[in-house]
Amino acid sequence: MLAIPKLAIQGLAGTAFLLGATLAATPALATGTVVNHLRLPQGTTMATCLQRAAVAIASSGLSPLNTTQSAAWGQREGGRIYTIYCIPANDVAIFVGAGNTSGEVSSDVTAMMNAFRSGGTGGGAGGGGGTGGGGSRK
């Protein structure tokens, strides 16, 4: 018979318990994302794009978060987060929503895009510029 020291058995049992407890406490990692874009009118500045993005997030009923150098952020209860990335050098704004499922965030991304199209002024963006948009869901 193989002799296993009592301390080794206790260590293995403790490790197994911790591993089991960790796995049981880990939530399912289901995530759904929606990504879409709008073309910006040529000459749109970063400042104008960010202003329109911040207005679009707030007017879509999302809770605004900090704006960074290139994006405006928002959130909704339930762990849903949204951003509008401004890339005026490429004449594009990218809209992203992430939550538990893509269906959960799709309508918010559409609302942000509609608000962005009709918001902001000056800086070459005009009132309601932006065309086209292809999207993807995961």
Which key phrases capture this entry?
Double Stranded RNA Binding Domain, globular, alpha+beta, signal, 138 residues, 37% helix, 3 helices
Distance between the termini: 55 Å
Taking strands numbered 1, 2, ... along the chain, how are they ordered across the largest sheet?
2-3-4-5-1-6
How many beta-strand segments? Answer: 6
Annotated CATH architecture: 2-Layer Sandwich
**Low-confidence runs:** 7-26, 120-134
Number of domains: 1
Number of helical regions? 3
Instruction: Look at the structure and give the mean pLDDT.
Output: 76
What is the element string, with H for helices and E for strands? HEHEEEEHE
Beta-strand content: 25-35%
CATH class wording: Alpha Beta
What Rg, in angstroms, do the CA atoms define? 23 Å
Question: Could you explain the architecture of this structure?
Answer:
With about 140 residues, the chain is of the alpha+beta class. The protein has a single domain, classed as Sirohaem synthase, central domain (Double Stranded RNA Binding Domain, 2-Layer Sandwich), CATH 3.30.160. The chain has 3 helices and 6 strands. The protein has a 6-stranded antiparallel beta sheet with strand order 2-3-4-5-1-6, with helices on one face. A hairpin with a 3-residue loop joins strand 3 (about 70-75) and strand 4. Helix 2 crosses helix 3 (about 100-120). The radius of gyration is 23 Å and the shape is globular. It starts with 5 loop residues before the first helix and ends with a strand. The relative contact order is 0.23. The model is unreliable at about 5-25 and about 120-135 (pLDDT under 50).
